[in-house]
Amino acid sequence: MSEATHEIGYAHCFCGRRAVIRTSWTKQNPGRRFQSCLNYERGGCRYFDWEDPPMCPRSRIIIPGLLKKLNALDDANKKLQADIMILKEGNKKLAMVIRLLIVVMIPVFCGSVWWISSTKSSGSRCFEELGMKMIG
According to its UniProt record, what is one Pfam family this protein matches (predicted)? Predict the structure, then answer.
């Protein structure tokens, strides 16, 4: 341990400030916590002390593999979330087109039915001119 004061759970660095707990992700110490000066990464007083005991050799092998799998799953999840957003936008556009078709086609269909029923004999003649047979 360094010359800085250290109590259970927290320490003060050589600057006199409360040290912060960080996590190492190096191959030798994956997931191992340590205490350091608040400004450790920018020079600071360079105070450093391990919070956790050394990692066993098996942990040094397993943790990086698990971390790699977790990162791959996070990346896949982000891609799927982006795909969902694209599909939702497509669904909104499709719903709008369907509504438009309904608004346009119902009057056309109703008008056609009315026209055919109001001109019973001419309705069948119209179908015959189009090359179709009227059912019924």
Answer: Zn_ribbon_GRF
Buried b / exposed e along 69-93 (16+ C-beta atoms within 10 A): eeeeeeeeeeeeeeeeeeeeeeeee
Helix/strand/coil for 51: coil
Indicate the pTM of the whole model: 0.50
**Position 102: which residue type?**
I
Asked whether the beta carbons of 44 and 13 are under 8 A apart, the reply is yes
| Domain boundary assignment for the chain | 1-55, 56-136
Residue-by-residue pLDDT tens, the chain, 136 positions: 344 444 455 788 888 888 999 999 888 899 899 999 988 778 778 899 999 999 899 988 899 999 999 999 999 999 999 999 999 999 999 999 998 888 888 777 777 766 666 665 555 555 565 555 555 5
The amino acid at residue 118 is S
* Whole-number Å distance between alpha carbons of 17 and 44: 11
Alpha-carbon distance of 26 to 21, in angstroms, equals: 16
